[in-house]
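Ligand: NAP. Inputs:
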Amino acid sequence: MAARSFKQELVGVFGQPVAENPTQVMIEAAFRQMGLDWRYLTLEVAPKDLPAAIAGMRAMGFRGINCTIPHKVAVVSLLDELTPAARAIGAVNCVARQGDKLLGENTDGKGFLQSVQAQGSVKGKSAVILGAGGAARAIGVELLRAGAGSLTVVNRSEARGQELLQVLEAVAPGRSTFTRWVGDYVVPEGTDLVIQATSIGLYPDIEARVPLDIDSLRPNMIVCDVIPNPPRTRLVREAEAAGCVVLDGLGMLVNQGVIGIQLWTGRDPDPTVMRQALLDVFE
Ligand SMILES: NC(=O)c1ccc[n+]([C@@H]2O[C@H](COP(=O)([O-])OP(=O)(O)OC[C@H]3O[C@@H](n4cnc5c(N)ncnc54)[C@H](OP(=O)(O)O)[C@@H]3O)[C@@H](O)[C@H]2O)c1
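Predicted complex:
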Protein backbone atom coordinates (compact mmCIF):
# COMPACT_ATOMS: atom_id res chain seq x y z
CA MET A 1 0.00 0.00 0.00
CA ALA A 2 1.33 3.44 -0.92
CA ALA A 3 2.23 5.68 2.03
CA ARG A 4 -0.36 8.34 2.66
CA SER A 5 -0.55 11.35 4.96
CA PHE A 6 -3.52 11.88 7.25
CA LYS A 7 -2.40 15.44 8.08
CA GLN A 8 -4.15 18.26 6.23
CA GLU A 9 -2.53 21.63 5.53
CA LEU A 10 -4.38 24.42 7.31
CA VAL A 11 -5.37 27.97 6.31
CA GLY A 12 -8.36 30.04 7.43
CA VAL A 13 -9.73 33.41 8.49
CA PHE A 14 -9.58 35.29 11.80
CA GLY A 15 -12.40 37.77 12.39
CA GLN A 16 -15.14 38.92 14.73
CA PRO A 17 -17.94 38.60 13.83
CA VAL A 18 -16.95 35.97 11.29
CA ALA A 19 -19.84 33.49 11.05
CA GLU A 20 -21.36 35.20 7.97
CA ASN A 21 -18.02 35.23 6.09
CA PRO A 22 -18.42 32.95 3.03
CA THR A 23 -14.72 32.71 2.09
CA GLN A 24 -14.41 29.07 3.22
CA VAL A 25 -16.94 28.01 0.59
CA MET A 26 -14.97 29.38 -2.35
CA ILE A 27 -11.50 28.44 -1.06
CA GLU A 28 -12.42 24.83 -0.22
CA ALA A 29 -14.18 24.47 -3.59
CA ALA A 30 -10.90 25.50 -5.22
CA PHE A 31 -8.86 23.08 -3.07
CA ARG A 32 -11.18 20.19 -4.02
CA GLN A 33 -10.90 21.03 -7.71
CA MET A 34 -7.07 21.23 -7.36
CA GLY A 35 -6.97 17.85 -5.60
CA LEU A 36 -5.48 19.42 -2.44
CA ASP A 37 -6.32 17.93 0.96
CA TRP A 38 -6.29 21.37 2.62
CA ARG A 39 -8.76 22.92 5.08
CA TYR A 40 -9.91 26.56 5.38
CA LEU A 41 -11.18 27.22 8.92
CA THR A 42 -13.52 30.09 9.84
CA LEU A 43 -12.28 31.18 13.27
CA GLU A 44 -13.84 33.70 15.65
CA VAL A 45 -10.98 35.65 17.26
CA ALA A 46 -11.59 38.58 19.64
CA PRO A 47 -9.23 41.59 19.31
CA LYS A 48 -7.55 40.87 22.67
CA ASP A 49 -6.77 37.31 21.52
CA LEU A 50 -5.20 38.19 18.15
CA PRO A 51 -1.54 37.95 19.38
CA ALA A 52 -2.28 34.49 20.86
CA ALA A 53 -4.08 33.43 17.67
CA ILE A 54 -1.10 34.45 15.49
CA ALA A 55 1.28 32.65 17.89
CA GLY A 56 -1.06 29.64 17.68
CA MET A 57 -1.06 29.56 13.88
CA ARG A 58 2.75 29.70 13.94
CA ALA A 59 2.86 26.85 16.50
CA MET A 60 0.39 24.70 14.54
CA GLY A 61 2.11 25.30 11.21
CA PHE A 62 -0.78 27.01 9.41
CA ARG A 63 0.23 27.81 5.83
CA GLY A 64 -1.55 31.15 6.03
CA ILE A 65 -4.54 33.09 7.26
CA ASN A 66 -6.90 35.81 6.08
CA CYS A 67 -7.64 38.64 8.49
CA THR A 68 -10.95 40.43 8.35
CA ILE A 69 -12.77 42.97 10.53
CA PRO A 70 -11.43 44.08 13.06
CA HIS A 71 -7.91 42.66 12.66
CA LYS A 72 -6.55 44.07 9.37
CA VAL A 73 -4.53 46.87 10.98
CA ALA A 74 -3.75 45.25 14.36
CA VAL A 75 -2.18 42.18 12.72
CA VAL A 76 0.55 44.28 11.03
CA SER A 77 2.72 44.51 14.19
CA LEU A 78 2.54 40.73 14.73
CA LEU A 79 4.12 39.78 11.37
CA ASP A 80 7.75 39.46 10.22
CA GLU A 81 7.53 41.14 6.81
CA LEU A 82 5.10 43.20 4.71
CA THR A 83 4.79 43.56 0.94
CA PRO A 84 5.21 47.13 -0.39
CA ALA A 85 1.44 47.34 -1.04
CA ALA A 86 0.53 46.20 2.49
CA ARG A 87 2.99 48.76 3.90
CA ALA A 88 1.48 51.56 1.80
CA ILE A 89 -2.09 50.57 2.67
CA GLY A 90 -1.23 50.05 6.37
CA ALA A 91 -3.40 46.94 6.57
CA VAL A 92 -3.10 43.21 5.90
CA ASN A 93 -5.88 40.84 4.89
CA CYS A 94 -3.72 37.87 3.87
CA VAL A 95 -0.82 36.29 5.77
CA ALA A 96 1.40 33.65 4.16
CA ARG A 97 3.96 31.51 5.97
CA GLN A 98 7.29 31.50 4.16
CA GLY A 99 9.69 29.19 5.96
CA ASP A 100 9.42 30.26 9.60
CA LYS A 101 8.44 33.84 8.68
CA LEU A 102 4.96 35.36 8.31
CA LEU A 103 4.53 37.70 5.32
CA GLY A 104 1.64 40.20 5.30
CA GLU A 105 -0.03 41.11 1.99
CA ASN A 106 -3.13 43.11 1.12
CA THR A 107 -5.05 41.38 -1.67
CA ASP A 108 -8.25 43.50 -1.56
CA GLY A 109 -6.99 46.22 -3.89
CA LYS A 110 -5.18 43.73 -6.16
CA GLY A 111 -8.34 41.62 -6.46
CA PHE A 112 -10.29 44.73 -7.39
CA LEU A 113 -7.66 45.82 -9.90
CA GLN A 114 -7.73 42.47 -11.69
CA SER A 115 -11.51 42.78 -12.16
CA VAL A 116 -11.14 46.26 -13.63
CA GLN A 117 -8.12 45.45 -15.77
CA ALA A 118 -10.08 42.66 -17.43
CA GLN A 119 -11.88 45.64 -19.08
CA GLY A 120 -8.64 47.44 -19.99
CA SER A 121 -5.69 49.27 -18.45
CA VAL A 122 -6.32 51.90 -15.74
CA LYS A 123 -3.26 53.93 -16.82
CA GLY A 124 -4.17 57.60 -17.02
CA LYS A 125 -7.82 56.92 -16.14
CA SER A 126 -9.83 59.15 -13.82
CA ALA A 127 -11.59 57.46 -10.91
CA VAL A 128 -14.10 58.39 -8.22
CA ILE A 129 -14.08 56.30 -5.03
CA LEU A 130 -17.13 56.50 -2.79
CA GLY A 131 -15.99 55.73 0.79
CA ALA A 132 -12.70 56.01 2.65
CA GLY A 133 -12.59 52.87 4.82
CA GLY A 134 -10.37 49.80 4.52
CA ALA A 135 -11.69 48.69 1.11
CA ALA A 136 -11.40 52.20 -0.38
CA ARG A 137 -7.87 52.52 1.00
CA ALA A 138 -6.69 49.27 -0.61
CA ILE A 139 -8.39 50.10 -3.94
CA GLY A 140 -7.06 53.68 -4.02
CA VAL A 141 -3.47 52.63 -3.34
CA GLU A 142 -3.53 49.90 -6.02
CA LEU A 143 -5.18 52.17 -8.61
CA LEU A 144 -2.42 54.75 -8.15
CA ARG A 145 0.31 52.08 -8.18
CA ALA A 146 -1.17 50.86 -11.50
CA GLY A 147 -0.95 54.37 -12.98
CA ALA A 148 -4.46 55.84 -12.58
CA GLY A 149 -4.26 59.51 -13.61
CA SER A 150 -6.58 61.09 -11.06
CA LEU A 151 -8.55 59.92 -8.08
CA THR A 152 -11.36 61.66 -6.20
CA VAL A 153 -12.22 60.31 -2.75
CA VAL A 154 -15.82 61.07 -1.76
CA ASN A 155 -16.63 60.39 1.89
CA ARG A 156 -19.26 61.32 4.46
CA SER A 157 -16.82 61.87 7.32
CA GLU A 158 -14.19 64.51 6.54
CA ALA A 159 -11.63 63.09 9.01
CA ARG A 160 -11.58 59.64 7.40
CA GLY A 161 -11.53 61.15 3.89
CA GLN A 162 -8.53 63.38 4.72
CA GLU A 163 -6.75 60.43 6.32
CA LEU A 164 -7.10 58.44 3.09
CA LEU A 165 -5.96 61.45 1.05
CA GLN A 166 -2.70 61.50 3.07
CA VAL A 167 -2.15 57.79 2.37
CA LEU A 168 -2.72 58.37 -1.37
CA GLU A 169 -0.47 61.45 -1.45
CA ALA A 170 2.35 59.32 -0.02
CA VAL A 171 1.88 56.80 -2.86
CA ALA A 172 1.56 59.30 -5.75
CA PRO A 173 1.73 63.02 -4.89
CA GLY A 174 -0.71 65.40 -6.60
CA ARG A 175 -3.04 62.87 -8.21
CA SER A 176 -5.79 62.67 -5.56
CA THR A 177 -8.42 65.01 -4.13
CA PHE A 178 -11.06 64.75 -1.43
CA THR A 179 -14.72 65.80 -1.69
CA ARG A 180 -17.06 65.73 1.31
CA TRP A 181 -20.16 63.62 0.53
CA VAL A 182 -23.27 65.78 0.98
CA GLY A 183 -26.58 64.83 -0.66
CA ASP A 184 -26.57 62.93 -3.94
CA TYR A 185 -23.06 62.91 -5.44
CA VAL A 186 -22.95 64.08 -9.04
CA VAL A 187 -20.29 62.16 -11.00
CA PRO A 188 -18.15 64.67 -12.96
CA GLU A 189 -18.19 64.45 -16.77
CA GLY A 190 -15.09 62.65 -18.04
CA THR A 191 -14.91 60.18 -15.14
CA ASP A 192 -13.85 56.71 -16.33
CA LEU A 193 -14.36 54.64 -13.18
CA VAL A 194 -16.92 54.97 -10.37
CA ILE A 195 -16.20 52.72 -7.39
CA GLN A 196 -18.76 52.16 -4.62
CA ALA A 197 -16.51 51.17 -1.68
CA THR A 198 -18.83 51.83 1.28
CA SER A 199 -20.80 49.16 3.14
CA ILE A 200 -24.14 50.51 1.76
CA GLY A 201 -26.25 47.67 0.30
CA LEU A 202 -24.61 44.81 2.21
CA TYR A 203 -26.96 42.01 3.32
CA PRO A 204 -29.37 42.30 5.12
CA ASP A 205 -29.83 46.01 4.26
CA ILE A 206 -30.03 45.19 0.58
CA GLU A 207 -32.34 47.97 -0.63
CA ALA A 208 -30.29 50.75 1.03
CA ARG A 209 -29.62 53.45 -1.56
CA VAL A 210 -26.17 54.84 -2.36
CA PRO A 211 -26.57 58.66 -2.41
CA LEU A 212 -25.54 59.07 -6.04
CA ASP A 213 -27.16 61.00 -8.90
CA ILE A 214 -27.80 58.08 -11.27
CA ASP A 215 -28.52 60.58 -14.10
CA SER A 216 -24.87 61.68 -13.95
CA LEU A 217 -23.69 58.17 -14.98
CA ARG A 218 -22.68 57.84 -18.64
CA PRO A 219 -22.59 54.62 -20.73
CA ASN A 220 -18.82 54.93 -21.21
CA MET A 221 -18.22 54.75 -17.43
CA ILE A 222 -17.29 51.55 -15.59
CA VAL A 223 -19.25 51.30 -12.33
CA CYS A 224 -17.92 48.93 -9.64
CA ASP A 225 -19.58 47.89 -6.41
CA VAL A 226 -17.50 46.17 -3.69
CA ILE A 227 -20.54 44.58 -2.03
CA PRO A 228 -20.28 40.80 -2.57
CA ASN A 229 -23.56 39.82 -0.92
CA PRO A 230 -25.87 40.28 -2.74
CA PRO A 231 -23.81 40.60 -5.94
CA ARG A 232 -26.65 42.35 -7.80
CA THR A 233 -26.96 45.39 -5.57
CA ARG A 234 -29.40 48.19 -6.23
CA LEU A 235 -26.50 50.28 -7.63
CA VAL A 236 -25.40 47.44 -9.92
CA ARG A 237 -28.93 47.20 -11.32
CA GLU A 238 -29.33 50.99 -11.72
CA ALA A 239 -25.91 51.43 -13.36
CA GLU A 240 -26.69 48.59 -15.78
CA ALA A 241 -29.97 50.30 -16.68
CA ALA A 242 -27.96 53.51 -17.33
CA GLY A 243 -25.90 51.56 -19.89
CA CYS A 244 -22.63 51.44 -17.90
CA VAL A 245 -20.21 48.50 -17.80
CA VAL A 246 -20.80 47.11 -14.31
CA LEU A 247 -18.50 45.03 -12.08
CA ASP A 248 -19.92 43.38 -8.98
CA GLY A 249 -18.19 42.68 -5.64
CA LEU A 250 -18.00 38.93 -6.27
CA GLY A 251 -15.27 39.47 -8.87
CA MET A 252 -13.11 41.29 -6.32
CA LEU A 253 -13.81 38.66 -3.64
CA VAL A 254 -12.92 35.78 -5.96
CA ASN A 255 -9.80 37.51 -7.32
CA GLN A 256 -8.42 38.26 -3.85
CA GLY A 257 -9.09 34.62 -2.94
CA VAL A 258 -7.17 33.49 -6.05
CA ILE A 259 -4.15 35.60 -4.99
CA GLY A 260 -4.34 34.14 -1.45
CA ILE A 261 -4.34 30.55 -2.79
CA GLN A 262 -1.41 31.38 -5.09
CA LEU A 263 0.55 32.76 -2.11
CA TRP A 264 -0.25 29.76 0.11
CA THR A 265 0.06 26.88 -2.37
CA GLY A 266 2.17 28.24 -5.24
CA ARG A 267 -0.53 27.03 -7.65
CA ASP A 268 -3.31 28.66 -9.70
CA PRO A 269 -6.90 27.86 -8.73
CA ASP A 270 -9.88 28.05 -11.11
CA PRO A 271 -11.79 31.32 -10.47
CA THR A 272 -14.96 30.06 -12.18
CA VAL A 273 -15.25 27.18 -9.67
CA MET A 274 -14.82 29.69 -6.82
CA ARG A 275 -17.40 32.14 -8.18
CA GLN A 276 -19.92 29.35 -8.76
CA ALA A 277 -19.45 28.05 -5.18
CA LEU A 278 -20.31 31.52 -3.86
CA LEU A 279 -23.29 31.95 -6.19
CA ASP A 280 -24.60 28.59 -4.94
CA VAL A 281 -24.61 29.76 -1.30
CA PHE A 282 -25.95 33.26 -2.04
CA GLU A 283 -29.01 31.88 -3.88
N1 LIG B 1 -15.72 42.26 -2.51
C1 LIG B 1 -14.66 42.15 -1.71
O1 LIG B 1 -13.74 41.35 -1.93
C2 LIG B 1 -14.55 43.06 -0.53
C3 LIG B 1 -13.32 43.17 0.15
C4 LIG B 1 -13.26 44.04 1.25
C5 LIG B 1 -14.39 44.74 1.65
N2 LIG B 1 -15.56 44.57 0.97
C6 LIG B 1 -16.79 45.29 1.36
O2 LIG B 1 -16.49 46.66 1.44
C7 LIG B 1 -17.38 47.30 2.34
C8 LIG B 1 -16.61 48.32 3.14
O3 LIG B 1 -15.65 47.66 3.95
P1 LIG B 1 -14.54 48.47 4.74
O4 LIG B 1 -13.63 47.48 5.36
O5 LIG B 1 -13.98 49.55 3.87
O6 LIG B 1 -15.45 49.16 5.88
P2 LIG B 1 -15.07 50.38 6.80
O7 LIG B 1 -13.58 50.49 6.96
O8 LIG B 1 -15.93 50.27 8.01
O9 LIG B 1 -15.55 51.68 5.95
C9 LIG B 1 -16.89 51.89 5.63
C10 LIG B 1 -17.03 53.10 4.68
O10 LIG B 1 -18.40 53.18 4.30
C11 LIG B 1 -18.88 54.51 4.56
N3 LIG B 1 -20.30 54.44 4.87
C12 LIG B 1 -20.95 53.48 5.60
N4 LIG B 1 -22.27 53.76 5.64
C13 LIG B 1 -22.46 54.91 4.92
C14 LIG B 1 -23.60 55.68 4.60
N5 LIG B 1 -24.83 55.35 5.01
N6 LIG B 1 -23.42 56.80 3.83
C15 LIG B 1 -22.19 57.15 3.39
N7 LIG B 1 -21.06 56.45 3.68
C16 LIG B 1 -21.20 55.35 4.43
C17 LIG B 1 -18.04 55.01 5.69
O11 LIG B 1 -18.08 56.40 5.72
P3 LIG B 1 -17.71 57.25 7.08
O12 LIG B 1 -16.21 57.35 7.10
O13 LIG B 1 -18.36 58.56 6.86
O14 LIG B 1 -18.27 56.48 8.24
C18 LIG B 1 -16.67 54.44 5.29
O15 LIG B 1 -16.06 55.26 4.33
C19 LIG B 1 -17.98 46.16 3.20
O16 LIG B 1 -19.35 46.07 2.94
C20 LIG B 1 -17.27 44.90 2.74
O17 LIG B 1 -18.18 43.82 2.63
C21 LIG B 1 -15.66 43.76 -0.11
